[in-house]
Amino acid sequence: MGTLSFTATVSLDGYAADASGDFQWSSPDGEVFQFHIERMAAVSTEVLGRRTYQLMRYWEAEPEAEAWTAAEHEFARRWRHVEHIVASSTLARTDLGPGDSRLVPHLDLAELERIVAEADGEVEIFGPTTASAAIRAGLVQDFRFFVVPKVVGGGLPALPSDARLELDLREQRVFGNGTVYLHYAPR
C-alpha cells in the first residue's frame, strides 16, 4: 500500500501560479533541482491533471534544439520510470505519451484511494486543482512545499481556500537561493 503526498512550489503569499497563469518565477536552481531528483526516488506514481501532464511531457525526450544537463537527464529518467495517471475528461488515450501512462476521465476520491492502495510507494498528486478534493477530504499524508521568496499578489492558490488542516512540521531546509522546503504531515 502506498501513501499520498502533495508537493507544490509556491510563492511566499501561497500561489502556485500568478494571476496570468505564469509560474516561471518558481523555476528551481541547480541545488533545488537536485533535491527534486533525490526525492523522486520514493515516488512510484504521479497523479496529474491535463495541464500539468502536458507540461511535464517535456521530460519524455530531450528537445532537439537544446542539450540537457546530466541532472536533467537523471530527472527525466526517474520521471519516465514512474506510473503517470492523468485525470482528464478532455484528453483521449491517444493523447498520452509513451511509457506507463493511464487516463482516468473522472478522478473521484474512491478512485484515488484505490490508486494509493495499489501503489508500491509514494503517490504524488501534482497540481493544486487536481489535489484539492483529496486535500479537503484529508487523504493527503505528506505535504511538501518549496516556498520561493517572491510575492506574486494573486493567482492559483496552492491550497484550497476552504481547506482546514492541522499539520506537524516533519522536515525543513533552506536552500542557497532563499527557497525554503517544508514537509508537513497531518496531526
From TrEMBL:
This is Dihydrofolate reductase family protein. It comes from the Bacteria. InterPro entries: DHFR-like_dom_sf, RibDG_C. Residues 5-180 form the Bacterial bifunctional deaminase-reductase C-terminal domain. It holds the Pfam family RibD_C.
